[in-house]
Amino acid sequence: MIRAIFAHWPALRSIALLAVLLTALPLQASDFIVIAHRGASGERPEHTLAAYERAIDQGADYIEPDLVVTKDMVLVARHENELSDTTDVAAHEEFADRKRSKTIDGRLVSGWFAEDFTLAELRTLRAKERLPSLRTKNAQFDSLYAIPTFAEILQLVEAKEAETGRRVGIYPELKHPDFLLQQGFDTVDLLVTALRQADLDDAEDAVFIQSFEVGTLRRLNTMVEVPLVLLVTPGSGPADEPALSYEEMLTPAGLAEVAKYADAIGADLRLVFNADGTSTGLAEKVHGAGLKLHGWTLRKENAFLPPALRRGSAENAAGDVPAMVALLRAAGLDGVFTDDPGLVVPAMNAGD
Q: Does the chain have fewer CB atoms within 10 Å around its N or its C terminus?
């Protein structure tokens, strides 16, 4: 059973209540951005060039690669540095002895890790669908796609911009940068170097950099001019600042401190809505500190939607994405991460 992020919305069960919520708050202006979460990962295995290209073709404003690092210091796109959920590494007998356990950000993780493989070795692996029980159609694409490097993603964006004449943004997240730095891998430096080489490190460039870690953002703030995003989720805190909680950081005093080194908050949607589906007012607090607010993650499957927006009884059936987009805009967000830009972009255009 997939745990839905909106399972805590027991009161939002009727279309009537949904209508009240939508009419109670004004829709925001049309500068709301659509961020393709790991590409169009509702239609292709995540973090593949196919997923990113599909998202661009569907009109996403930004594509979002999660970045980890290889043994030979190459940034590659994976959801986590542990590879077994998103690749066929477990089926490669030649890598059986690479399996190990590591404590990452206080959690024991067992499997195969990107930083223990050279790029050439990773090239022998193939991507697979991470949620096959929900996205059975995506599983048809298992074993077709290689793990892309960050350089290849930038090359794809440049090619698609030339093809379409449309600006395409990049919204990378550094995964576990403090842990990797302790292992001898400076992913902050690697990312900044890559952006500088691509001439994408200035304030006017269509780039956001995101991290759950405070030290990483503070360091980036001295190195690049592109906007920086603090990611937040309930019941947790920055791995590199164990004395802090994200809830504390979202108070007016906490946001004032965040504004010294970041430009936006990337919030788990559970921080955007109350248990009854009404807005928490987070957008007002974030905007009051001079920051933008982007929410994550909007997915089309019933398992990830509030009860009133589900269609049918199957967890993997598609629910009412346009209504969810309207809720997010009414709550005052400036953008949303989505696995399904092919549904969200038309919903945005219809609402403008």
A: N
What confidence score (pLDDT) does residue 5 get? 62
Q: What is the pLDDT of residue 25?
A: 45
- Into how many domains does the chain fold? 1
Residue 182 phi/psi, 5° resolution?
-65, -25
Active-site residue, from 47, 79, 176, 294: 79
**What is the biggest distance separating any 2 CA atoms in the chain, rounded to whole angstroms?**
59
Q: Is 347 inside any structural domain?
A: yes
- Structural domain that includes position 315: 15-67+75-81+148-351
Active-site residue, from 37, 47, 176, 294: 37
Q: Are 265 and 212 in contact (CB under 8 A)?
A: no
- Residue 334 lies inside a defined structural domain of this protein: yes
Given this model, what pLDDT does residue 74 score? 98
E strands, the chain, in order: 33-37, 62-64, 66-69, 75-77, 100-104, 107-111, 169-170, 173-174, 209-211, 228-232, 264-268, 292-298, 335-338
Residue 264, pLDDT score: 98
Is residue 294 part of the annotated active site? The answer reads no
Indicate if 47 belongs to the active site: no
The answer to whether 217 and 252 are in contact (CB under 8 A) is no
Q: What CATH number is associated with residue 21?
A: 3.20.20.190
Lateral strand order in the sheet of 66-69: 75-77, 66-69, 173-174, 209-211, 228-232, 264-268, 292-298, 335-338, 33-37, 62-64, 169-170
pLDDT at residue 1, rounded to an integer:
37
Backbone dihedral angles phi then psi of residue 85, each to the nearest 5 degrees? -75, -25
